[in-house]
Write a structure and sequence with these properties.
The structure is a homodimer. Chain A is elongated and about 75 Å long. Chain A has a two-stranded antiparallel sheet with strand order 1-2. Chain A is about 65% helix and about 10% strand. The first copy, chain A, has one domain: Arc Repressor Mutant, subunit A. Chain A is mainly α. At the A-B interface, helix 1, helix 2 and helix 5 of A face helix 1, helix 2 and helix 5 of B.
Chain lengths: ~110, ~110
DNA sequence: GTCACATACAACCATATGGTTGTATCTATG
DNA sequence: CATAGATACAACCATATGGTTGTATGTGAC
């Protein structure tokens, strides 16, 4: 299973309410696939697919526990996405700062 | 044009490198659609579609400037996505804290 | 070893997405 | 108003996505 932690897959995986909810529940890492599937109004196989998408994105991992496989959220993948959004935020602030400087400079010139 | 700022659309829009790059460039709000399209190795219409996706997600807006329409990133949409990821992070930390408390409690009992 | 439970996966269908080309509309300028 | 530039949008195609049902595999309990 490829889990290279790329932004495309992570954002795509997070673009679905069911999958975001699975990520939330899997923060506790207590439920297997059957338990998780029970929360949603769709087939077991559908949830399996959603989990597979999350797994390929590196957002969750599965650990064997007896006859079950417990799904656990990988917080690092979430942090990668957050880090990217932080960069945009930082660049945005930088832009504002430059504009402020520019205005200050214009006023300087006007005097 | 519907621009309800929902997480599904925002994450889906961010799940493409070309669109993320457009969001970056549009932080400066200096380029029109033609100028933006010039940066990428695909047709003008393809970039128009990407911008439409970003627009539907509320990630960018267009403002008329003479015969052009300048594309500008809407930082609030980015913040919404970041806020969601922050929540996951917070819940994750809460979980760790609860585990730590539990361990502390067990040790208390043992004495 | 057999049975039941948990998981995996293939085949199929409908719809969405990402690209193309072509045509139409809007706006500024001579 | 004629023309050129900037944008919009429809039609089309290939592939991806999200769901279904059905079948197969793996693991623990008896």
């Amino acid at each position: 299973m490829t889990t290279v932690l790329d932004a495309d897959r992570i954002f795509a995986a997070m673009a679905d309410a069911t999958r975001r909810d699975i990520v939330l529940r899997a923060l506790d890492a207590r439920e297997g696939v059957v338990e998780l599937a029970a929360h949603y109004p769709m087939s077991f196989a559908a949830i399996q697919k959603h989990i597979a998408v999350l797994e390929r994105a590196g957002l969750v991992t599965k650990e064997r526990d007896g006859r079950r496989k417990v799904v656990r959220t990988n917080i690092d993948a979430l942090r990668l996405a957050r880090g990217l959004l932080d960069e945009y935020e930082a660049l945005w602030r930088g832009r504002i700062d430059r504009m402020t400087d520019l205005i200050a400079y214009s006023k300087e010139i006007e005097r």
